[in-house]
Amino acid sequence: MAAGEHEFRAVNSQDVYAGRVMALRVDDVAMPGGSVAAREVIEHPGAVAVAAVDSDERIVLIHQYRHPVGRRLWELPAGLLDVDGEAPELTAARELAEEAGLAAARWSTLVDVAASPGFTDEVVRVFLARELSTVDRGEIVDDEESDLVVRRVPMREAMSMVLGGEIVNSSSVAGVLAAHAVLTGAVDPRPADAPWRDRPHRWAARRRSR
């Protein structure tokens, strides 16, 4: 069999842990040559992020505490795809309202980001939101979101934050760079409801089966 033609199929799968926003399974995967190798996979519901850009070409960033890295990060507004049956673009609109108190009249798809495909199926779709208006954020629950700082940053400054290592969240890095490419006319974005080939599905199916 020529390189690139092998089918990497799971011959066995074992569930190890299932939590609120992730699950861990171990797959035994058929390798080229006939061997079998264990692959640990973190299942994730998937997420959306929003590059919201106002009429002055300032992008909305939030400063949020992220416990795994032990500090606050500058990021795009974002949220999990944890509402069964909700379209990703509707999740994005809801998260933009809840985290930044904003609505947008124009939506498009920028990029899909596989967070770390060596061990997790997490993929984040980043949307571009334009023609912004202010809305009520609603009730803020007493968790990390109650500590959010929201800031509108000129695109040039946001680009410098990415290249200077101040913005390190992968979907935020990709979203800022992609938004800049669209705003400068280098590329055109996809429609907001563009097909999403790599959207995670295992976590949602697991949750529905409980």
From TrEMBL:
UniProt feature, compositional bias: Basic residues: 199-210
Keyword entries, A-Z: Hydrolase
UniProt xrefs under InterPro entries: NUDIX_hydrolase-like_dom_sf, NUDIX_hydrolase_dom
Disordered, as annotated region: 188-210
PROSITE patterns: NUDIX
All copies of domain Nudix hydrolase, residue ranges: 42-175
PANTHER family (alphabetical): ADP-RIBOSE PYROPHOSPHATASE, UDP/ADP-SUGAR PYROPHOSPHATASE
Name of this chain's protein: NUDIX domain-containing protein
